[in-house]
Amino acid sequence: MPELSAALKGQVNQKLDSIGPSGIRAFDQKISGIPGLVKLTLGEPGFNTPEHVKEAGIRSIQNNDSHYSAQKGTPALRNAISGFLKKRHGLDYNPETEIVATIGATEALAASLSAMLNPGDKVIIPTPAFALYVPLVTVAGGIPVEVDTSKDHFILTAERLNETLAREGDAVKALILTYPNNPTGVEYSEKELQALADVVAQKPIFVIADEIYSELTYDVTHHSIAAMIPEQTVLINGLSKSHAMTGYRVGYIAAPAGFIKNAAKMHAFLVTAPSNPAQAAAAEALANGMDDPKEMCVQYKKSRDYVIACLDKLGFETVPPKGAFYIFAKIPARYSQNSVEFATELAQKAKVGVIPGSAFGPGGEGYIRISYAASVEDLHAAMANLEAFAKSESSVA
């Protein structure tokens, strides 16, 4: 095996070299080899892709749809995205000039930030937050400004946003807003979003609205901030969570044409275009599968309620999530408040895999993230293991 030349060691992008791997993936990999482990770690939907969606992808392959796609995505997919956003949220995006189909929402974020940021630009990130935001901002040359929302029930208030903007000054280029939130499951109400929109409208900044979990909400209606300040919003979404299509890797950016022009250019530099069969499947999901997530939501809500009831009995404080499929649980005071230590102990002794809250930035320490997108059988096994662990630890104490 070749070894890197000694003269080339350290001769890499220093920003990238200074960033560690995703805390989520790194911890999941660390504990995955434990025998008998029940994993509630990754954001992987516990359903199969709907049959009609799979069939659309198969037809694409059978029809020899194997040549380069248009760089911004096939017309069929962009039209489906435009139609979905209009029907679901009343948003108007021209499929020719205001939409780009990407390799998942992650590439949509990477392309958007790279197209947006200049060295020294600041990006406000309410935390706890998805672990990739800070690295993506940093590699794009920006400066992450993390705002701990834990004392405000994990909501970025208009007051906190105003304070942050006043403190950070004119270097602020954007706000990343994700809702329903990963890891907390918190969803913003229309009133809360409007208050944030009113603040943003007074400043020359973007809102990057990561709405990947928008179709997975419980007893609340999802509202998009793009309906309030469309001229300042870069909307990110995709099919991974809504239609259990994580492996298809299809996401999209919807934004004003003046921004899409450069975002599409960056996207083309990164990946050229998504694969045709995946785009055909995604187009079918958006055009004819708008109701597909409803069945998933029914089961996710049952799973959420079951897990919360079990956690409550064991002394874990929780804020019942209104969306996504995560529970952000406060570690009881009787245990170590170091979330990595506690999550490691759970994996080793209880055979339950969760993600340490510290992986999600300020406000996350002292918590663990539990994914309830797992099978019902795995959830029952995990909660039984957790109860046995709690009893054994109590008896030792």
TrEMBL record:
Family: Belongs to the class-I pyridoxal-phosphate-dependent aminotransferase family.
Cofactors (names): pyridoxal 5'-phosphate
UniProt record, GO biological process: amino acid metabolic process
Entry keywords, A to Z: Aminotransferase, Pyridoxal phosphate, Transferase
Gene3D superfamilies, per the entry: Aspartate Aminotransferase, domain 1, Type I PLP-dependent aspartate aminotransferase-like (Major domain)
Name of this chain's protein: Aminotransferase
Top-level lineage group: Bacteria
All copies of domain Aminotransferase class I/classII large, residue ranges: 37-380
Statement: the UniProt record of this protein carries the keyword Zinc: no
InterPro entries xref list: Aminotransferase_I/II_large (IPR004839), AspAT/PAT-like (IPR050596), NHTrfase_class1_PyrdxlP-BS (IPR004838), PyrdxlP-dep_Trfase (IPR015424), PyrdxlP-dep_Trfase_major (IPR015421), PyrdxlP-dep_Trfase_small (IPR015422)
Lineage of the organism: Bacteria, Bacillati, Bacillota, Bacilli, Lactobacillales
Keyword Transferase annotated: yes
GO molecular function: pyridoxal phosphate binding; transaminase activity
A matching Pfam family: Aminotran_1_2
EC code: 2.6.1.-
